[in-house]
Structure formats: C-alpha cells, structure tokens
Amino acid sequence: MIVHYQFTDQQQHLREKVRALAIKKIKPLVKKADENGSFPRAAVESLAEAGLFGVKIPTQYGGMGCGLMEFSLVVEELARIDGAVATTFAASLLGTLPILLFGTEKQKQKYLPPLAGGKQIASFAISEPETGSDSSAIQTRAIKAGEKYRINGQKRFITKAGESEIISLFAVTDPVKGARGLSAFIIEKQYKGLSYGPQLQKLGIRASATRNIICQDLMVPEENLIGGKAGRGFIQAMKTFEHSRPGVAAQAVGIAQGSLDLALGYSKRRKQFGKPINTFQGLQWMLSDMEIQIEAARCLTYQVIGMVDRGEKAAAAAAAAKVFASDTAMKITTDAVQLHGGWGYMANFEVERFMRDAKVTQIYEGTNQILRNLIALRLIKGIDDIGL
Ligand SMILES: Cc1cc2nc3c(=O)[nH]c(=O)nc-3n(C[C@H](O)[C@H](O)[C@H](O)COP(=O)(O)OP(=O)(O)OC[C@H]3O[C@@H](n4cnc5c(N)ncnc54)[C@H](O)[C@@H]3O)c2cc1C
Predict the structure, then answer these.
(1) What is the pLDDT of residues 128-163, one digit of tens each?
(2) Model pTM greater than 0.85?
(3) Is 70 a catalytic residue?
C-alpha cells in the first residue's frame, strides 16, 4: 500500500490476524476447491474458530461488536487469497443483515448468537427466475394461514443455499401494493417445504456454493416475519444492500490486490532478454497503474464504509464504491494475466482464477448497470434509490 490509512491498533491487528489465517489455513485448500467446485467447509470452520463471523454482530449477541470497516478488512484480506471464501464469508453477513438491522429483539436473541459464533451461516434470497435487476418484481408468494405464512415460489442463484442454516427470504405478502407489498422472512433449513436445486457450475468463485431454492408450501411461523411487520421487505432489502455493497467493493479490492501481489512476484522471477521483466519500463508502468487504481478503489471503499459506520445515508456512495472497485478488479486481474504472458492463461498459475473471480463482483448485489442507474437518479433528481 502506498497510501497511509489510519487504522486503529485493533483494525491493524485484525488485518494481520486474518492475513496470517488466510495464508496458513485457506490458501492450501483453494486450488482443489476451485477445480472441484466444492464448498470450503474447512475454511468456514477456521473462520468460525477465529470468531470472524461475529465481527459486525454486537457483543450482547455474542459478536465482536465492530463496524463495517473491520468486517470489510476481513473480506479484503480473504479475497486477496481467495474470492470464493471471501464470498462465502461476506454473503453470510448479507443474510444476517436483515435480522441485525430490522429484526425484533426476540429474533435477534434467537438467531444472532449462533450466526456470530459461525455455528450457523446465513443466505440472502431475493433473486428469482423473473426477478434479477428488478427486485420489486418478486413472484414468490407468502399467504397468511393462521399463525403461519405459507410460501410458494423459487429463488435463483442463491449463495450458500443448501449449506446455510438460516435464510433471509423475500416474498410478496400483498400483491396489490407492489414494492410496498414485499416482506422478509427468516427461514430455518429444517422447515418442511424447502428444497434446493443442484449446485450450479460457475465461471469463477467456483467453491462458493450457488443453488436455486424451491419453496413448496413452506410453512413459516408468523414470528419469523422480519421486524414483525409486513410490507417492509423492499426497504429492508435496499437498506441491507447499502451496508453490504461496500463489502463487495472490499472484496473486489482484495481480489485486485491479490493479483497484483502475484504479478509483482512473477515480474521479479521471470527473465527475458537476459533481465527480469520488471526492469522493462513498459511493465513498470503497468505495475504502477495497477497500484494507483487499487489505491483509488480502496480509498473510495474505505470512505464509503466510514459513512455507513457513522450512520450517514450512503446508498449512492455504496453503489459508486462497488462499481468502481469491481470495474478496477476486472481490469487489474486482466492486466495481471497479461503480465504473466502464456503462463497467465494456464490453470497451473493461480492468476487466472483471480480474473475469473473478479467478474462476479460486477454482477451480484446489483449489476454495475443498475448501480449506475441509481447514481444517475441521485445526480439528476437528487434522490436515493429507495423512494419509499
Ligand atoms: C455467483 C452468483 C451469486 C449470487 N448470489 C445471490 C444471492 O445470494 N442472493 C440473491 O438474491 N441473488 C444472488 N445472485 C443473483 C444476482 O444478484 C443477479 O444475478 C443480479 O442481480 C442480476 O440479475 P439477473 O441475473 O436476473 O440479470 P438481469 O436483471 O436479467 O440483467 C441482464 C442484463 O441486463 C442489464 N439490465 C437489466 N435492467 C437494466 C436497466 N434498467 N438498465 C440497464 N441495464 C439493465 C443488467 O445489468 C445485465 O447486464 C447471485 C448471482 C451470481 C452470478
């Protein structure tokens, strides 16, 4: 890093701890997990042992009580080693956030402690076959049946589906009201009526499990309606993204940094024309540009995280950080492959995995096109996306 960031001692210590853990416990598992597309259960256990799933959960619920900054430092350091493990970790907070931000006290007391300890992990399920970029077009239906809700529908591309014990799931409770008719529910894995499609094969983050979810007469107790009030689902989802998108930006920064680390190392070792390739000015400038762009993405990301941690409105800023950092990650990882020459293209060298892993950060939690729409709305009309 060429920019000096004023980390607290606690943040610095956390960064170093996660970096050491990622190198020692996660790095050895990564290649095989990517090849096989197998869920990194051992990595999840290591993160749970270190208490990291509780980093952003308040101490009264068994967490470390830190902010989004500390959480994002964990994500960034994990992504510097492996994007799939970083996704697995970050998406657990994504699934936890609706409970953390909007849950009733009873819901928090019941669900947050096992999530903080990593005994359980969470998923977030909003996407559907007909609902991707347009989150308000959800078709999954939740109908009140006595003291329960009966849920029917399908969720698509859900990270950790089949592996997670808890799912924050969004469904329509009042079809007449559009976005105001959506509600969020806490689903436990053992509930009857919940099943999963097969593991989907992916371009990158291959070890991160992705499956569809099928809800067929899924019966959910009324007390699992997040926040205890129907019709709040859309705003809860949008607010959740405001907190989670900076985490995707941090993931993208980590992936970019990891690929620069590899490119730097290779450029010292590889010789052509009788000299290490890092003595050629063309490559020195490429390395400098990579460093500059990563630092720019990191600065924007940390700045936005600070806004979220101070409780400021940050929907457009979070979108900007996610767009800029993910576009940067795609560029940097492509350059890192280029700097490796032919070996960059081969699976033997892990730099190609970073390029494959970077791509998804431009797609999930709002594609970069949708996030640019959101920023444009703020620019042109001076309003945030939520509008509710
Ligand atoms: C690996 C992976 C993991 C995921 N995990 C989860 C998860 O855990 N939970 C979850 O709920 N979802 C998850 N998703 C889903 C993800 O959030 C969606 O794929 C994403 O929001 C895009 O939706 P879509 O795929 O339906 O694309 P579409 O919405 O069909 O978009 C197709 C293209 O059209 C563009 N587009 C659409 N509308 C507009 C517009 N108005 N203006 C300009 N361009 C537009 C998009 O940017 C995109 O390029 C995951 C996806 C992937 C790939």
Answers:
(1) 999 999 988 999 999 999 999 999 999 999 999 999
(2) yes
(3) no
The CA R_g of the chain, rounded to the nearest whole Å, is: 21
What residues does 275 pair with on adjacent strands? 272
pLDDT digits (tens, 9 = 90+) for 215-245: 999 999 999 999 999 999 999 999 999 999 9
C-alpha pair distances (Å), 157 with each of 128, 239, 282: 8, 21, 41
Ligand 1 contacts CB of residue 370 (under 6 A): yes
221 C-alpha vs ligand 1 centroid, how far in Å? 30
Domains and CATH numbers, the chain: 9-116 (1.10.540.10), 122-231 (2.40.110.10), 235-381 (1.20.140.10)
Listed in order, strand segments (DSSP E) in the chain are 122-125, 141-145, 148-159, 166-172, 182-188, 194-196, 210-221, 271-272, 275-276
Q: Is the minimum distance from the CB of 211 to ligand 1 under 6 angstroms? A: no
Pull the structure tokens for residue 235: 């705003």
**Ligand 1 pocket check for 88: Cβ under 6 Å:** no
Nearest atom in ligand 1 to the alpha carbon of residue 155 is: 11
Q: Are 283 and 268 in contact (CB under 8 A)?
A: no
Report whether residue 367 contacts ligand 1, using a CB cutoff of 6 Å: yes
Per-residue model confidence (pLDDT) at position 386: 54
Give, for ligand 1, the residue of 87, 126, 127, 140 to mutate: max count of ligand atoms closer than 8 Å to Cβ: 127
Instruction: Given the residues 70, 77, 165, 365, select the one marked as catalytic.
Output: 365
Q: Once rounded to an integer, what is the mean pLDDT over residues 170-197? A: 97
pLDDT tens digits, one per residue of 71-97:
999 999 999 999 999 999 999 999 999
Task: Please indicate whether residue 71, judged by its CB atom, sits closer than 6 Å to ligand 1.
Answer: no
